Amino acid sequence: MSPALAGKVAVVTGAAHGIGTAIVAALEAEGAIVYGVDKDTADLSDSAAVSEFFAAVGDVSILVNNAGGVAGQVGKPLEDVTGQDWRDVVDANLTTAFLCSRAVIPGMKRRGWGRIITISSAAGLTVSKTGIQAYASAKAAQIGLTRQLAHELGPFGITVNCIAPGFILSNPTTLAQWQSYGADGQAGLVSGIAMRRLGQPADIANGVRFFAAESSGWVTGQVIAIDGGSAFL
After folding, report:
1. Alpha-carbon distance values, 93 to 32, 76, 156, 157, 209 (Å)
2. Could you report the per-residue pLDDT of 146-202, keeping only the tens digit for each?
3. Among candidates 17, 227, 228, which has minimal Cα distance to 123?
4. pLDDT per position as a tens digit, 3-25
5. 9-168+200-220 homologous superfamily
6. Would you say 138 and 93 are in contact if contact means Cβ atoms under 8 Å apart?
7. Cα atoms in the Cβ-side hemisphere of radius 13 Å centred on 142
8. Distance from the CA of 87 to the CA of which of 6, 35, 99, 215 falls in 20 to 30 A?
9. C-alpha dihedral sign at 99, 18, 214, 164
10. Residue spans of alpha helices (H) in 10-72
11. How far apart, in whole angstroms, are the C-alpha atoms of residue 172 and residue 53?
12. Is 77 exposed, middle or buried (0-12, 13-18, 19+ CB in 10 A)?
């Protein structure tokens, strides 16, 4: 039997490491032809660069908006946040999702089939542990974009869903954040997770597999928190 996504073209943004790399591997295991893209490959917050990248790829059946992050920032009082600080984080998370989704929709409409999956964050459901206001705002906005696009694109056979990961130790930024908590803070975070462990990139990739599947065709506009049963305060 052929793999479930055999021959379907997928694009995964933010694919250089961690969650993105795991998603690429998961979709390839399902038979998809996967193009991974990261900020070193194309500036996905720039409309022209996005158009150029997707023109080279061609029609895309599955888009995973995983690009994001905190743009090298740390939390500070709002009065100390510059306009550029704000734009950098919002562009990395929300603008990239908007531009990439816009690029793939025409082809999905023509074929009457598509999957758009955005990786938000627990910060979009509650507050950000980083204390970065723009990050929490952009991640919440990704959820709003998901719900709006699901309503708009459902008649064309396109589903749009979102994953809100809990704490995943997946890249240098999250490693530094984890280390900053110290032993007591780390123990406290883990004790607030029902499964009593941190998440792994594969946990999020498995959620993407579910949303990308043919059998998930009546699941749209949904936000699933893959967080091990975290009790967020």
Report:
1. 25, 19, 26, 25, 21
2. 999 999 999 999 999 999 999 888 777 777 787 888 898 888 888 888 999 988 999
3. 227
4. 889 999 999 999 998 999 999 99
5. NAD(P)-binding Rossmann-like Domain (3.40.50.720)
6. yes
7. 39
8. 35
9. negative
10. 18-29, 47-57
11. 26
12. exposed
62-65/114-119 β-pairing: parallel
52-88 pLDDT, tens digit each:
999 999 999 999 999 999 988 999 999 999 999 999 9
Domain boundaries, the chain: 9-168+200-220
Contact 5, 30 (CB under 8 A): yes
Residue 56: phi, psi to the nearest 5? -75, -35
What is the length of the chain? Answer: 233
8 Å CB contact between 208 and 64: yes
| pTM for the structure as a whole | 0.94
**Hey, which residues are catalytic here?**
135
